[in-house]
Specification:
alpha+beta, Rieske Iron-sulfur Protein, 249 residues, six-stranded antiparallel beta sheet, binds FE2/S2 (inorganic) cluster
Length: 249
C-alpha cells in the first residue's frame, strides 16, 4: 500500500487543547490536540457543510458551530442530531520530526499510532421519576388515557411538553418526535420518551424539565418520565415544522 503520509505540523506546534487547519491529501482538515493525543478530521460538517474550524471541543467530540451536531474526533461518527453521517477521519502519527497524517486505510503505521480511544456512549439509562411506572406502549402516537380525570386533556399534556426545548437543537421535544407515549391516570401522568442519541448530554435536563412542566399543571400531582432507547429515535419521527427549523430534508 502506498504511503501518503504528509507532515502537517511541527511536534511542539500545538499546545494542549490547540488546533490547526491543514490540508491532508488536498482535503481541508482540522488537527486537534487533546492531552497528548492528536486527531485529524475533515473540516466539514456532514449536516450542511459548515466548517468545524471554530467548533467547540467537548471531551473527545467536536461540535458544529452552526446547528450543534457533535462528532467523535476518533471515529468521525455523529453523536447527535442533526448530523446523521460521519465526517472523515485521518490517521495521525507523531514522529521525532513532526506530526504526520494520511487518509485512513492508505498507509500502515511506521511508529505506534497516536492513541485514539473510542468515545464511550452513555448506556441508554432508564430514568424513572418514581418507583412504579405503568406499562406503556412504545409508539409515536400519543395514547389516550382510559382513566382520564377530565381535568386535563391529553392535548393539554402534549402542549405542556412542547415547552421543553432540546437545548442542542432548539426544537421542542414533541416536534422532534421524542415523546413516545403519555398515559394519564387520575392525577398522575406517565411519559415514555427517548433522546436523539444516547450520547447527547442534554438528557437529564430534558427529563427534569418534562417532569416540571407537567407537574406545574393544576390537575397533575405527579409526573413519571421514563427514558427509553427502544425503539431508537429516527429522523422520520420529526414533524415538518421541526425539519424546517433544522434545515433537515
Ligand atoms: S451544518 Fe453542522 S449541524 Fe448543521
Amino acid at each position: 500500500m502506498t504511503s501518503t503520509w504528509e507532515q502537517i505540523a511541527a511536534v511542539d506546534e500545538l499546545p494542549v487543547g490547540g488546533r490547526k487547519s491543514v490540508f491532508i491529501d488536498d482535503t481541508p482538515a482540522l488537527l486537534v490536540r487533546i492531552g497528548d493525543d492528536y486527531f485529524a478530521v475533515e473540516d466539514l460538517c456532514t449536516h450542511d457543510g459548515q466548517p468545524l474550524t471554530d467548533g467547540p471541543v467537548d471531551g473527545q467530540a467536536i461540535i458544529c458551530p452552526r446547528h450543534g451536531a457533535r462528532f467523535d474526533l476518533a471515529t468521525g461518527k455523529p453523536l447527535c442530531m442533526p448530523a446523521t453521517e460521519a465526517i472523515a477521519t485521518f490517521a495521525v502519527e507523531v514522529r521525532v520530526d513532526g506530526i504526520y497524517a494520511a487518509p485512513q486505510g492508505t498507509v500502515s503505521s511506521s511508529t505506534p499510532a497516536v492513541s485514539s480511544p473510542e468515545v464511550k456512549l452513555a448506556e441508554p439509562a432508564v430514568v424513572v421519576a418514581t418507583a412504579e411506572t405503568p406499562a406503556m406502549t412504545s409508539t409515536t402516537t400519543i395514547a389516550a388515557s382510559e382513566e382520564d380525570s377530565g381535568e386535563v386533556s391529553d392535548a393539554d399534556l402534549i402542549d405542556a411538553l412542547r415547552q421543553v426545548i432540546d437545548p442542542e437543537l432548539m426544537v421542542n421535544i414533541v416536534d422532534l418526535g421524542l415523546v413516545y407515549s403519555v398515559n394519564q391516570s387520575e392525577r398522575k401522568v406517565a411519559v415514555e420518551m427517548t433522546l436523539t442519541s444516547p450520547a447527547c448530554p442534554a438528557g437529564p435536563q430534558i427529563i427534569q424539565q418534562a417532569k416540571m412542566v407537567l407537574e406545574r399543571l393544576s390537575a397533575i400531582d405527579e409526573a413519571q418520565i421514563k427514558l427509553t432507547m427502544s425503539p431508537p429515535w429516527t429522523p422520520d419521527r420529526m414533524t415538518d415544522e421541526a425539519r424546517d427549523q433544522l434545515g433537515f430534508f
